[in-house]
Here is the input.
Amino acid sequence: MDSQKIHLMGMTLNELKAVAKEAGMPAFTGGQIAKWLYNQHVRSIDDMTNISKKNREALSEKYDIGCADPIDAQHSKDGTIKYLFPTDDGKFIETVYIPEDDRATLCVSSQVGCKMNCLFCQTGKQGFQGNLTAKDILNQVYSLPEREKLTNIVFMGQGEPMDNLDNVLRATEILTAPYGYAWSPKRITVSSVGVKKKLQRFLEESECHVAISLHSPFPEQRAELMPAEKGMSIEDVVELLRNYDFSHQRRLSFEYIVFGGLNDSMAHAREIVRLLKGLYCRVNLIRFHQIPNVPLHGADEAKMESFRDYLTHHGIFTTIRASRGQDIYAACGLLSTAKQMGTPSGFPRAGERMGD
Here is the structure.
């Protein structure tokens, strides 16, 4: 990959047609390029064999594919694999591949670090170091060794997707468009803490599933856990969501990390029932994974099960999400590339073990 060249990956069909036209080729060549990119996953323009050699050479003078292989992989005992990908601007992101029975989910990142600074999330402790381009987002799929096995993609890796909305929308367009990966939007879930105006725009411009980080139904407590509550309250988020229909193809879920003695009481469960009443949705309960220097701990299994049963009994479909990849720091809330950035994180560098 030549950093001086313009990357074709991440371009829409209209942009690829414009590239072809600028190079003196017919517009349909843009469609051929799109097929080579998003269907064939070529590594070089020279691999686009139904384009003349002269035209390939002309393209190669200014453009390249933009693909970049992962530079590290850590394998969990449960089959989860955490990959370390380089970005165009010399930074790094973590991407998690999660196989399970007949499904295989890829958890992609949308930013290097994150501005949201949620108390329980290691990515937030890293701070914010930049938005990913659509190319950097798509490369996590394009250059994934297990790409052909994927059934689902979740934007639940590093970063807040709504804080990088233009690039997330571009990436999801290419993932779902006929000229791109042609995936159903039902195979893609985009998470958010709730970012004013951005969340509404996403709901209007995308048909992908939506997952909202809830973590407490009480505004004051949620603000302590998630500073973003002060910018868009959970009450405002839910009020916005009530304007959309989630009873058919599009799914709405709420993510709820259960902290022992903090947000696992029946008072919290009752308030969730009140907050979400009449909203067609599901709740995913998530085990907390300890991070350095944070005085929180997970709830025990019995408490999580009783919490789930209460919500289910009161009409909210609720599951306890299986924890995957914890031994390689790939589970929910553990992703961080602070070590690669040269700043301490409390976690080992990719390839190291704690204490090395």
